[in-house]
Amino acid sequence: MTKTPGPDFIRTIVEEDMKTNKWNGRIATRFPPEPNGYLHIGHAKSICLNFGIAKQYDGECHLRFDDTNPAKEEQEYIDSIKDNVRWLGFDWGEHEYYTSSYFDRLYEWAVRLIESGDAYVCDLDAEQIKEYRGTLTEPGRNSPCRDRSVEENLALFEKMKAGEFDEGSHVLRAKIDMSSPNINMRDPVMYRIIKANHPRTGGKWCIYPTYDFAHGQSDSIERITHSICTLEFEDHRPLYDWYLDKLGEHHPRQIEFARLNITYTLLSKRRLITLVEEGHVDGWDDPRMPTISGLRRRGFTPESIRDFCRRIGVAKSDNTIEIEYLEHCLREDLNKRAQRVMVVLNPLKVVIENYPDDLEEEFDAVNNPEDEVMGTRKVPFSKELYIERDDFMEDPPRKFFRLAPGREVRLRYAYFIRCTDVVKDDATGEIKELICTYDPLTRGGDAPDGRRVKGTLHWVSARHAKTCEVRLYDRLFTKLNPARGKRGRDWRTNINPDSVVILNNCKMEPFIECMKRFDNIQFERTGYFCVDPDTTPEKFVFNRTVSLRDSWAKIQKSQKK
User: Fold this and answer.
1) How far are the Cα atoms of 266, 459, 551 from residue 323, in angstroms, in the given order?
2) How far apart are CA 414 and CA 102, in angstroms?
3) Are residues 406 and 550 in the same domain?
4) Same domain, yes or no: 26 and 43
5) For 333-355, what is each residue's pLDDT tens digit?
6) Helix (H, G, I), strand (E, B), or coil: what is residue 361?
7) List 30, 259, 507, 544, catalytic entry
8) Which of 204, 229, 257 represents a domain boundary (last residue)?
9) What is the pLDDT of residues 445-457, one digit of tens each?
10) HSE, side-chain direction, 13 A CA sphere, residue 118
11) Do 31 and 135 have their domain in common?
12) Are residues 360 and 447 both part of a single domain?
């Protein structure tokens, strides 16, 4: 994939409508989430599409909460959805709407359909309705209640509204065609009884419209021009058309596109809820989650997500995007914006025996080589340092170019050092510290005599080091398609038991203390990280966003073969 935008047949449709003045030059889209969970990366694609089209064609995009099921909706979800949309860089202005605001009109329309003989009250229970509906190969059967008179249906519907019936005992159904090859047209349910207070309407209603009845009509009420949905709603479009045709109301154009699928990722809201409720993750904003809140906490930037959505384009058929491509877009963005710092994850002490005990120096370190405006910072240096334990081997293999006994390496921005001795724990044999010497003529990292070294190490001055916690996050699932169980195994068996490793004794340079929550950082030679909200003045916490190694090019190469 290139940096150019991917294919987008929806914008082609919108441009044609603009040319023909189909909507009198008006463009109105909408993003209509149900407030029963947190948004995920798949929703981000829809957000970028709907808000992006509205912005590009000088239109409006509505944020509408389809709050038709009070048993599953919470204010927490509404607040998080609004926060996520804003964080992605979009604003709905005055166009914030709720389906619950239309309950009176939806009820009136339901009564109108009863009066025209196009809806009836049915007292089959849920299992019976499913049984009567038939299958993909067999037609359904008419409900025994289907031929009730208009007067009886109106009276029963009024009793449903008044709360005289128990939940599940009666529903209002559209009277369409029980033999239709499209199961959605086999007398779908329009209203059901839910005796629960609604967050916005309180106890006014005990009957609530189904999503399928409310969705198209809400678009109509708001005068939406282009109702953009994912492919699973393609078979529902005839039903939405049927309702609006019967009611004679404004008829938006519905366009379906392929939902986003990403390898090693689940985007099923039901399964994401399971992950949270069963404690497989630490909440909706866990950095391993594909939710927008989780991605933000992981260290993703809104710019990288928007760029990803732009590049993958909009397709008519389902496809799967490699997670490596999402990470590639992120790395490209972070490479331009992330502050470089030195942090040692698994510290090993180095004592420079020929360095003065009381001497302290400062070296200029580049904050970001991709952006000169970011300038430099001062990094303190002293006699005792920390380096990564993996950067030393007593008996190194041939291609190991880091520190070893008798070998010389460069300390980034500082000096050349040479290992002269290894101090071990008498009881365990574990290496406790390294004794080294430095060459004062190599200040700044270059030797005046022109000698070269192959290894350059990052380090932190022990005297100035701050201890921090680093959480090394990996993929939550081990399988390319985690939804697929093998031999009937549950998808939970694909959860990666090593999806997070927590390091508590990492050493960071003091400059990092000026960082704020969610700031993006590159730990030199290690990867990109983010300051976690758990950070306090006493303890910094970092989340690994993504490693430095970009495997996307390798995947592209293999796909071309």
Assistant:
1) 11, 32, 10
2) 68
3) no
4) yes
5) 999 999 999 999 999 999 999 99
6) strand
7) 259
8) 257
9) 888 998 999 999 9
10) 15
11) yes
12) yes
Any idea what DSSP says for residue 345?
Answer: S
Please give the residue range of the domain that contains residue 505: 269-339+469-560
399 is catalytic: no
* Distance (Å, whole) CA 394 – CA 405: 6
The CATH number that applies at residue 354 is: 2.40.240.10
- With 0-12 CB in 10 A as exposed, 13-18 as middle and 19+ as buried, what is 335? middle
> pLDDT tens digits, residue range 45-54?
999 999 999 9
In a domain, 216, yes or no: yes
Residue 506 structure tokens: 């990492």
Examine the domain organization and report whether 394 and 491 are in the same domain: no
* CA geometry: angle 391, 395, 401, nearest 5 deg: 45
Closest of 225, 221, 227 to residue 254, by C-alpha: 227
Q: Is residue 243 part of a domain?
A: yes
Q: What is the pLDDT of residues 120-141, one digit of tens each?
A: 999 999 999 999 999 999 999 9
Note whether residue 1 is domain-resident: no
**Catalytic annotation, pick one of 34, 222, 322, 509:** 34
Sign of the dihedral defined by the CA atoms of residues 390, 392, 396, 400, in that order? positive
269 is catalytic: yes
| H-helix or E-strand spanning residue 20 | helix 9-20
Residues 32 and 173 in one domain: yes
In terms of domains, do 280 and 429 share one? no
What is the pLDDT at residue 158? 98
Q: Are residues 115 and 228 in the same domain?
A: yes
Rounded-to-integer distance, Cα 70 and Cα 197, Å: 7
State how far the Cα of 282 lies from the Cα of 237, in Å rounded to an integer.
38
Residue 536 lies in a domain: yes
In this structure, which amino acid lies at residue 170?
H
Q: Tell me how many domains the chain contains.
A: 3
Q: Of the residues 465, 495, 525, which one is the last residue of a structural domain? A: 465
The structure's pTM equals 0.92
Residue 309: CA atoms inside 13 Å, Cβ hemisphere, count? 24
Report the alpha-carbon distance of residue 518 to residue 439 in Å, rounded. Answer: 39
Catalytic residue among 11, 141, 253, 269: 269
Is residue 466 annotated as a catalytic residue, yes or no? no
Selection from 442, 447, 435, 336 nearest residue 392 by Cα: 435
Task: Please state, rounded to an integer, the average pLDDT across all residues of the chain.
Answer: 94
Side by side, which strands form the sheet with 96-98?
A: 28-31, 60-65, 96-98
